[in-house]
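Incident log entry.

Two folding requests arrived from the same account within the same minute. Monitoring flagged them as a possible duplicate submission, but the sequences differ. Recording both here for audit purposes.

Request one:
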Amino acid sequence: MSTSVTYGSYLRLPELLGAQKPQTGEHDELLFVILHQTMELWMKQAIHEIGAAQSEVRTGNLVPAYKHLARVSRIQAVMTQAWDILATMTPADYLKFRELLGTSSGFQSAQFRVLEYKLGLKDASFLKFHDEGSSDRRMMEEALAAPSFYDDALRQLASAGFDIPQSAYDRPSGVAYEPSEAVEDAWLAVYRDTAKHWSLYQLAEKLIDLDDAFLTWRHKHVLTVERIIGMKRGTGGTEGVGYLQKTLARRAFPELW
């Protein structure tokens, strides 16, 4: 006789709700843990959706990719709003348990780096924060070595007849994308005749939505961190707010901006 599926068993709620292990008796530590765990769950879904969109774009099937990308933008909006919840924690509240975090930091999130790599923001220096052979390190290495979503989008521009140098979308493994005047000219041509290049135009708009939402999330993160820790150094050894502010200049799809 098979065991019936229940709401709790299907969602594995005992495991999920048992995954929060605050290490102090401080009230706000649970909020800190739940917020970051939730961020990781949403990043997992965003990576899943971007992977599906990339598979569609790679085959030239652009329209189905729009839904996946629109969903990612909605996920990013939820993630951005989540910082408002963390901001209800005051500096005094955070200092009560900050010391136990040691050198751990969101800076070390493997999924966040995979998300960046998939969008084309590739930087191998982040690998050193994860042990060789670990599942996180392998996941990051795979994303770093694979073509980015933007690479596949530029291939579609080239396939549509635009003069895109192969070096723009076919680089050595792990090499970061560099803006190209030829790519900028191609996107400009798309925007000048949207009716003729409708599918590419819609793809471009979904890409800029994605980058816009990513930057909005980063900006809200900076404000929240500054509100809670001021200009102190981050737990991971970074400059804290200073480091985060520098990330606001990063663009996954620079020519579209």
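Request two (distinct sequence, not a duplicate):
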Amino acid sequence: RRSSDLAFLGPTRLCVVALPSQKSLRIEAFNLTRKEGANLVEQFGGKLYEVKDKPVLEPPPRKPLPIRNALLVVDSPKAAEAARRAGEKGPVIIIPAAMAFGTGEHATTASCLRLLADLAAKTFRDAPWDFNDLGTGSGILAIAAKKLGARKVEGCDFDPHAVRTARENVALNNAAPLPIRKTDVLKWTPNRTWHVVAANLFSEVLIQASATIADAVAEGGYLILSGILREQEAGVVAAFRKRGFSFSRAVRKGKWVALLASKTAVVKQTRQKTR
């Protein structure tokens, strides 16, 4: 038979499946009447089966994720309201389950959140600070920085879906102004520096972009690195030590590592002429 004999089903109702190691094809047609099905069997042979769609189950709600005593991450406005009623007084971040990386549960994201909360509480408690989130995913780190008191915050991601999701989460958490841009870190040229930069990226990207990332951190500023597998830690550390960073903390969870580093301030010396 010719494929044109199936044209009456239209492009949105028809799926033809080639089965491995078989000469026959399977025709799947949606919203098919019994008369149309009988007609297909008459023309193409085979048997007719009715397939009923299984109900789509919603994922179970996530448990609230406390970050030190500074933040609480929940998955819905309803959960945020419940936390408030239960007496939660600190900032609550809403990150719905989505395709964009970063709900806070993964070891890399959770470690970054804790390192960020520690910096905000200890290092920048009484000082203004700015934050940039490279590879923002869902926007959770950028939103957390804003909730923790950062003065100016922005984020970027290479994935346009992540950018859209992060912008939606910024609005959901009333965190504006917080610009989220589509940016390829490997092609990026920073136009300023930030007191804290987070880069939750693959190790290969961190190493390739180490010079650019280093240029984005202010002298005396801090860098949070994650997305690093244990066997890749030494390579990432070596790449950033060459750029003037010293490492003070390493958080290892399972196969993942998150690192905190500081950029050594350059002390400018004035030469004095001797007579």
